[in-house]
């Protein structure tokens, strides 16, 4: 596909979008994993067994 | 009936159950819709007679702009839920939405600039639409920063709900800025009286991308809401554990203090 003389702007826009959305998704996954780990550790200490 | 259903779905325990089941399906649907949308954008949509290939930027710029405004609207409704009903899930929803809305607003601003340089000859103008979108991004940043400043989530919830509702004044300004002022940004071309001005060969792929971004945004929001509920449980358990340790230390000092006094008296 020939994007013409403005290819850099088009590819740049899509690359930036992929970077931000990728960051959002990875950030969300890592954050939830960290909270689950912290919760498991705390429940082990306090004896709280709620799911 | 609807009220009962709403209360059932919005109960944090029920929310964790139904959102846990729905999130993987929504994530799969988002991936499928995005793949289909990108295929249409890159291989089916014809170049525009004026913009040429640069029109392809619009297929991420417009959905991102929609989501930036959509999430702020959702946050404003949540703010009402926090202030009027003090519903715990309303605050959770608001907090989870802010970074997602900010990210999509940033995408809108950057992709708009990258489209503007070849089309308008400049990355930025202080046009009413562009400026009001920048203000929206700054409000999002302010809300996120305020959340990080106030440690107690209940105190933060009320302050941020008020700030969110004040910032909601910007939403109609964003929507109608192109009608109220003479702007370089083009007027509404999808939702307007008399129908869309876009050719169907370009309009339907654009609507598909808007749908794909919306499903992705909602999926991320539900997932982040689940994380926020877990974060609050971690906070409660941490405080409970600290209190337990404090109580243990206090008991230990009561037990040991008579001996200490004896030692002190004897000295």
TrEMBL record, chain A:
Keyword annotations from UniProtKB, A to Z: Cell inner membrane, Cell membrane, Cytochrome c-type biogenesis, Membrane, Transmembrane, Transmembrane helix, Transport
Residues annotated as transmembrane: 6-30
GO biological process, one term: heme transport
GO CC term, one of those recorded: plasma membrane
Membrane topology: Single-pass membrane protein
Function of the molecule: Required for the export of heme to the periplasm for the biogenesis of c-type cytochromes.
Name of this protein: Heme exporter protein D
Species this protein is from: Methylobacterium brachythecii
UniProtKB/TrEMBL annotation, chain B:
GO annotation (BP), single: cytochrome complex assembly
Function: Required for the export of heme to the periplasm for the biogenesis of c-type cytochromes.
Domain Cytochrome c assembly protein: 6-185
Transmembrane segments: 21-45, 65-85, 97-116, 128-147, 159-182, 202-223
Gene Ontology molecular function terms on file: heme binding; heme transmembrane transporter activity
Database matches in Pfam families: Cytochrom_C_asm (PF01578)
GO cellular component terms, A-Z: plasma membrane
Keyword Cell membrane: yes
Name of the molecule in the record: Heme exporter protein C
Keywords per UniProt: Cell inner membrane, Cell membrane, Cytochrome c-type biogenesis, Membrane, Transmembrane, Transmembrane helix, Transport
InterPro entries for the chain: Cyt_c_assembly, Cyt_c_biogenesis_CcmC, Cyt_c_biogenesis_CcsA/CcmC
Compartment(s) where it occurs, according to its Swiss-Prot or TrEMBL record: Cell inner membrane; Membrane
Similarity comment: family membership: Belongs to the CcmC/CycZ/HelC family.
Keyword Disulfide bond attributed: no
Topological relation to the membrane, as annotated: Multi-pass membrane protein
């Amino acid at each position: 596909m020939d994007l013409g003389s403005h290819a850099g702007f088009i590819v740049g826009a899509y690359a930036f979008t992929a970077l931000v959305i990728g960051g959002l998704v990875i950030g969300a996954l890592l954050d939830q994993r960290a909270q689950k780990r912290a919760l498991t550790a705390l429940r082990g200490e306090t004896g709280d067994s709620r799911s | 009936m609807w009220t009962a259903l709403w209360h059932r779905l919005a109960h944090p325990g029920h929310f964790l159950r139904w959102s846990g089941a729905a999130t993987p399906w929504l994530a799969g649907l988002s991936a499928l819709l995005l793949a289909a949308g990108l295929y249409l954008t890159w291989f089916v949509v014809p170049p525009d007679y004026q913009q040429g290939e640069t029109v392809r930027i619009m297929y991420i710029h417009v959905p991102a702009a929609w989501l930036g405004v959509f999430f702020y609207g959702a946050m404003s409704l949540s703010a009402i839920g926090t202030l009027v009903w003090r519903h715990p899930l309303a605050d959770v929803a608001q907090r989870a939405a802010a970074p997602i809305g900010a990210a999509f607003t940033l995408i809108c601003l950057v992709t708009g600039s990258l489209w503007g340089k070849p089309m308008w000859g400049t990355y930025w103008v202080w046009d009413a639409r562009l400026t009001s979108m920048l203000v929206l991004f700054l409000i999002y940043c302010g809300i996120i920063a305020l959340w990080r400043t106030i440690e107690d989530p209940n105190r933060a919830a009320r302050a941020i709900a008020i700030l969110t509702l004040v910032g909601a004044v910007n939403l109609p300004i964003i929507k109608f800025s192109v009608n109220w002022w003479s702007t370089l940004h083009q007027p509404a071309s999808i939702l307007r009286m008399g129908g869309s001005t876009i050719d169907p060969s370009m309009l339907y792929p654009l609507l598909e991308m808007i749908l794909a971004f919306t499903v992705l945004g909602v999926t991320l929001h539900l997932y982040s809401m689940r994380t926020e509920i877990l974060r609050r449980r971690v906070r409660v358990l941490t405080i409970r554990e600290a209190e337990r340790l404090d109580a243990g230390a206090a008991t230990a000092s009561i037990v040991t203090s008579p001996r200490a006094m004896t030692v002190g008296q004897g000295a």
